[in-house]
Specification:
Layout: H1 2-37, E1 40-42, E2 45-48, H2 51-62, H3 66-76, H4 90-108, H5 121-134, H6 138-143, E3 149-152, E4 155-160, E5 163-168, H7 172-181, H8 194-201, E6 210-211, E7 220-222, H9 265-272, E8 289-299, E9 302-312, E10 317-328, E11 334-336, E12 339-354, E13 367-371, E14 374-378, E15 384-389, E16 405-410, H10 418-436, E17 446-452, E18 456-471, E19 473-481, E20 486-490, E21 503-507, E22 513-524, E23 527-535
Parallel strand pairs: 2-3, 16-17
Antiparallel strand pairs: 1-2, 3-4, 4-5, 5-7, 6-7, 8-9, 9-10, 10-11, 10-19, 12-18, 12-22, 13-14, 13-16, 14-15, 17-18, 20-21, 22-23
Length: 536
C-alpha cells in the first residue's frame, strides 16, 4: 500500500514538473515572439515603443540568418536602406534603388534646367557598396528604411553622411529644412559635398547626443568619437607608435616589416599567394566608427569579399568581421552564392587602449597562460608553474567569439608597433602555449593575446583559418548590442591565486587605435581564390 501511494505521489509530482516546464517554455517563446511583434510601421519607418523593444528585436534578428531578416522586413512592408539580395529579388532591388535615387535627384535638382529622367544601372552597383561601408551591420541596415530612418517612441532617428540627427516626429519638417539650408544631403545615395561635411562636423561634440544650436533643443546630433585613421597603406595616420627594439625574455622582438606567421602546410601556399587588397572606406572615413572592405573579383561575375567593422550607431553597435562569396546576377547586383569551400583567417585584430602611467604590479607574473581549463604562470625566463584550474579572463567578445586560450604578457616598455606585437606573439607566446598542449592532440584555433606596457594595453584576437563547405558567408561577431561595451581587464586574472593585480577599464568601441590583418578564401570550380585585408 505504501509503495502504491509513493508511486502516485511520484507520478503527480512529475506531471506538475512537466506542466511547469511547458509553461516556462511557452512563456519564453511568447516573450521572443512579442519582441518581434512589438515592431510596427509608422510613416514608412520601423517603429518601436521604446529602446528595450528595439534591443529585443535586434537581438533576435542577429541570431537569425539573413533570409529570415529579409522576411521580417518584407512582412512589415518597408523599403530597406540595404535590402538583402537574393536570386529572387535582385531585379526588384535594382528597380527600387533606381526609383529611390531618381525621386531624390528630381526633388533636389528642381532649380536646374536639365531634368533627370534615368539612373544608370552602374550607379546602383556603386551605391550599394557605399551604403554597406557606411552602415557596416547587415541586420541594422535592413531595419533602416530607404531614407536611413527608424523611429523609437516619439523620436525619428535619421542617418546621413555627416552624422545622426534625432528629432520628435512633429518636428520632422523642421529637420528637413535644417538639412536643406545647410546643404546636407538627406539621402545616403547622394553624398554631401566634402567641404560642407568638414565644416559642419569641425566644431561638433563627438561621442554623445547633443542639441544643435538654433533648433529650440528639438534637433539632436551624434557622431562617433573614433577618428579617421590610416588608409590601409601603412604610410601614416593613427597607428601604433613608439618603437621598441629591445628584447623580451632574451628572445627579442624588435624590428619592423611584415612578419609571416606559421600556418597549416595545406593552407600556407594558398594564403601566401593571396594579394593584399585595396581597402575601401566610407565617403567621410568613419563617422560612425570603422568599416574596412576589400575583395577579389576573380571572375567577371564572382568575388570574395572581406570586411571588418566596428561601429557605434548610437541606438546599436556592432564589432565583427566577415567573408562573403558573391555572384553577380543578370541585373548586375552582387548576391550571395555558396562556394565549394569558404574560409576565414584572422592573423590578428588589435585594439590599443591608452591609460595613465601605471603598470601591472611587480607581483604579477610577466607571462600568464589560460588554456585547457588551467592557468600557467612564468616562474622565471624559462620555467612555468601550473597554478591549477582557473577561469579565463573575459572580454566583450567572449560570448560571441569564444577563445581556446588567453595569453597575458606585461612588458616594461614605452610603446609597441604592430609588427613588434605580432613577432612577440608568434616567437614567444604562440610557441610556449603549444608546448603546454604537447601530446594532448589538441589544437588552438582562437586565441586572445593581452600585452600591458607603461602607458598602453594591447588586446589581439587570432582566429586561424576555418574552412566550411557549401557556405556563402562566414562571420566573426565580436560584440553587438545596444549599450557601449565597457569592460574591466584585471591583470593576474583575479582568480584567487594570491596574485597582486592591476585593473583597467576600457571602452571596446573607443580604442586609441585599431589594426586588422585577415584574409578570406573560397574554392569554386576546383580553384582557390581570395584576398588579404590589412588596415590600421
Amino acid at each position: 500500500m505504501k509503495n502504491s501511494k509513493l508511486i502516485k505521489i511520484a507520478v503527480f509530482s512529475l506531471l506538475i514538473f512537466t506542466t511547469s516546464c511547458r509553461e516556462e517554455l511557452t512563456e519564453t517563446l511568447s516573450e521572443n515572439s512579442n519582441a518581434i511583434e512589438q515592431a510596427s510601421v509608422r510613416n514608412g519607418r520601423l517603429y518601436f515603443p521604446n529602446r528595450e523593444s528595439l534591443a529585443a528585436t535586434y537581438k533576435e534578428l542577429k541570431h537569425k540568418n539573413l533570409e529570415s531578416v529579409q522576411n521580417f522586413i518584407n512582412d512589415k512592408g518597408i523599403e530597406s536602406l540595404i535590402p538583402i539580395i537574393t536570386e529572387k529579388n535582385e531585379d526588384q532591388v535594382i528597380n527600387t534603388l533606381k526609383a529611390r535615387k531618381l525621386t531624390f535627384l528630381k526633388n533636389s535638382s528642381s532649380r536646374t534646367l536639365d531634368p533627370i529622367t534615368t539612373i544608370p544601372t552602374e550607379d546602383v552597383y556603386e551605391d550599394l557598396d557605399d551604403l554597406e561601408e557606411i552602415v557596416g551591420d547587415d541586420v541594422y541596415a535592413a531595419m533602416l528604411n530607404g531614407n536611413a530612418e527608424i523611429q523609437v517612441a516619439n523620436n525619428v532617428y535619421k542617418y546621413t553622411d555627416v552624422g545622426l540627427f534625432v528629432t520628435p516626429v512633429e518636428n520632422y519638417a523642421n529637420l528637413e529644412n535644417y538639412l536643406e539650408v545647410r546643404q546636407i544631403s538627406p539621402n545616403l545615395l547622394e553624398p554631401t559635398e566634402i567641404t560642407v561635411k568638414e565644416d559642419f562636423i569641425s566644431d561638433k561634440v563627438t561621442g554623445e547626443l547633443t542639441p544643435l544650436e538654433n533648433t529650440n533643443n528639438k534637433i539632436n546630433y551624434y557622431i562617433s568619437p573614433i577618428e579617421t585613421i590610416d588608409d590601409g597603406t601603412g604610410t601614416g595616420g593613427t597607428g601604433y607608435g613608439g618603437g621598441y627594439g629591445g628584447g623580451y625574455g632574451g628572445g627579442g622582438y624588435g624590428g619592423g616589416g611584415t612578419y609571416t606567421p606559421p600556418a597549416e602546410p595545406s593552407m600556407a601556399t594558398i594564403v601566401q599567394g593571396l594579394p593584399i587588397g585595396e581597402v575601401r572606406k566610407p565617403w567621410l572615413g568613419n563617422i560612425f566608427g570603422t568599416t574596412w572592405e576589400t575583395d577579389d573579383k576573380y571572375e567577371s561575375r564572382r568575388r570574395v569579399k572581406v570586411k571588418f567593422y566596428s561601429q557605434n550607431l548610437y541606438l546599436v553597435y556592432a564589432v565583427g568581421c566577415k567573408v562573403k562569396h558573391q555572384y553577380k546576377g543578370w541585373t548586375g547586383l552582387w548576391r550571395k552564392e555558396d562556394a565549394d569551400k569558404l574560409g576565414i583567417g584572422i592573423n590578428s585584430i588589435s585594439w590599443k587602449f591608452s591609460h595613465s602611467l601605471t603598470y601591472a604590479s611587480d607581483n604579477t607574473p610577466r607571462e600568464v597562460y589560460w588554456l585547457d581549463g588551467k592557468m600557467y604562470k612564468a616562474a622565471n625566463g624559462t620555467d612555468y608553474v601550473n597554478a591549477g584550474s582557473s577561469t579565463m579572463p573575459t572580454f566583450p567578445f567572449s560570448n560571441n567569439a569564444t577563445v581556446d586560450a588567453v595569453i597575458q604578457f606585461t612588458a616594461d616598455v614605452s610603446g609597441l608597433t604592430e609588427a613588434q606585437l605580432n613577432k612577440l606573439f608568434w616567437d614567444n607566446a604562440w610557441k610556449q602555449a603549444n608546448k603546454f598542449l604537447e601530446g594532448q592532440n589538441k589544437k588552438l584555433n582562437r586565441v586572445a593575446f593581452v600585452v600591458d606596457s607603461y602607458q598602453s594595453t594591447y588586446i589581439q584576437y587570432y582566429d586561424f583559418s576555418q574552412i566550411q563547405d557549401n557556405q556563402d558567408v562566414i562571420e566573426r561577431v565580436f560584440n553587438w548590442g545596444v549599450a557601449t561595451p565597457q569592460f574591466t581587464y584585471t591583470f593576474g586574472g583575479g582568480t584567487g591565486t594570491g596574485l597582486a593585480v592591476t585593473s583597467y577599464k576600457f571602452n571596446f568601441l573607443q580604442p586609441t587605435a585599431v589594426a586588422v590583418s585577415m584574409y578570406g578564401i573560397a574554392k569554386k570550380n576546383g580553384a582557390w581564390h581570395g584576398v588579404k585585408l590589412n588596415a590600421q
